[in-house]
Design goal:
alpha+beta; 7-stranded mixed β-sheet; 5-stranded antiparallel β-sheet; globular; binds biotin
């Protein structure tokens, strides 16, 4: 069972997660984090046992069964420029894969489906939803929401083909507070490097090695219903996805309201 004390005991960072708000039940940790961001310090982590209205990207919902998953949102208020906010999603994704390596790399590898999904065995194990508020040109806050399927034994019919959990892949149950601690540690490390260098050039190669669709054809779905197929050739230093079209031209795709799918299914 998660508890504030249990989580605090596993956090060994100085910024990310230095203040913990633990809630038994909440609509969405992202919404809660946005509501308190003004009054809570930078690095506050909101964690909930369950969410009644968990949100995904593009208006989707996020299934949030209690006792099984991690539902948390990190509030960042310092040092990030609004135009760099989308890069924070990629940093979060990389941090989760690194934490999963430390937990269970020998049993199962984790990959990234740009920009915000973590994939195990071709299925989604984690999603990230980054939201922000700016005041004129300055960032008021970024909220990085992470939903990770840890000990789920099954999923509802509608998502069973595309969702998985660490338990399903490894047949082992894990202490969720341990995983929260690992993610915060990795996040703090990558965030520090990002703030030092100012872009993602330092992460590009490592990230591209994790890209589930690297050098494969993907389907790009834009919110205006436009859809086309191109080859994914990795991210650039700004975290945009480079795609190569049939005629050989290379274009960049920004995360915004774009979905990337495999040509024949989820990856
Ligand atoms: C996605 O894959 O579309 C993003 C899913 C993000 C889910 C997490 S769970 C914790 C946080 N609170 C929310 O309401 N959403 C994020």
């Amino acid at each position: 069972m998660l508890s504030e004390e249990n989580i605090k005991n596993k956090i060994h960072t100085s910024r990310c997660g230095r203040n913990i708000i633990y809630l038994q039940e909440v609509g969405s940790t992202n919404d809660y984090a946005k509501m308190v961001a003004h009054d809570e310090p930078d690095g506050t982590l909101v964690v909930a046992e369950t969410q009644t209205a968990g949100k995904g990207r593009m208006g989707r919902n996020w299934s949030s069964q209690s006792q099984t998953g991690i539902f948390m949102s990190l509030i960042l208020k310092e040092g990030i420029r609004p135009q760099n906010a989308s890069m924070i999603t990629l940093i979060a994704a990389m941090s989760v894969t690194k934490a999963l390596d430390r937990l269970c790399k020998d049993e199962i590898e984790s990959y990234i489906k740009w920009p915000n999904d973590i994939v195990m065995n071709q299925k989604k194990v984690c999603g990230i939803l980054t939201e922000m508020r700016t005041d004129a040109e300055n960032l008021e806050y970024i909220v990085v929401g992470i939903g990770l399927n840890v000990n789920n034994e099954s999923f509802e019919n509608t998502i069973t083909d595309i969702a998985t959990s660490i338990y399903i892949e490894t047949k082992k149950k894990y202490d969720r507070a341990d995983i929260i601690g690992l993610i915060m540690e990795e996040f703090e490390r990558y965030l520090g490097l990002f703030l030092e260098y100012g872009n993602l050039a330092f992460l590009k190669e490592e990230y591209n090695r994790r890209l589930v669709n690297m050098n494969n054809e993907v389907k790009i779905l834009r919110s205006c219903n436009e859809e086309y197929i191109a080859k994914s050739i990795g991210i650039n230093e700004n975290g945009e996805l480079l795609i190569c079209k049939d005629n050989g031209s290379v274009e960049t795709v920004m995360s915004g309201e774009v979905s990337v799918r495999g040509v024949y299914g989820y990856v």
